[in-house]
Amino acid sequence: MPPAGAPGAHPIEVVEDASECVRAAARQWPNRFEAIVSASPKLRRDSNVVRALASLHTPESETILVEAAQVREAGNGYLRAAAVASLVARDSRALTALLPRLLGDRHDAVRRAALDAAHRYGDARSLVALHRIAANPRGKPWERAKASGATTKINRRSPQS
Fold first, then answer.
1. Within a 13 Å sphere around the CA of 115, how many CA atoms are in the beta-carbon half?
2. For 29, how many CA atoms within 13 A lie in the half-sphere containing its CB?
3. pLDDT tens per residue across span 93-131
4. What is the pTM of this model?
5. 114 and 103 in contact (C-beta within 8 Å)?
6. What is the per-residue burial (b if ≥16 Cβ within 10 Å, else e) of 102-139?
7. Roughly how many angstroms between the first and final C-alpha of the chain, as a whole number?
8. What are the Polar residues biased-composition ranges (predicted)?
9. Domain residues of the chain, as ranges?
């Protein structure tokens, strides 16, 4: 099968074009897009589709994103990261209950997205995981700094914690 995209295009460019096509379809035909994704377990596990769901603000699309954020099988780290990023883009509060586990994820992209979410609107349920990340001397400096900042922000929002 010949590669998609312009002749001589780099594979990354082809993937970026395909991703943009998926996002455009979600924006152009949101109801049809959501119906097709809802009916297809394979599409619900596609990170491009999950990113496109960020633009749909329906309960069904949020359910799909929450489920994608919880997929634990090996090889799905980018799917989980895309789901978390989409939930953050939607400003979804459904993510707050998932944050403690996502903050301990082995995949860097998932932890990064979860740290962004915790910094934006994490609550006291995330504090134990954030303290563990911030206090880990072998942890990555950016993770420790982000966890420390999120902890400070959560404590400011809820002083009783």
1. 23
2. 8
3. 899 999 999 999 999 999 999 999 998 888 899 999 999
4. 0.84
5. yes
6. bbebebebbbbbbbebbbebbbeebbebbeebbeeeee
7. 57
8. 149-161
9. 11-157
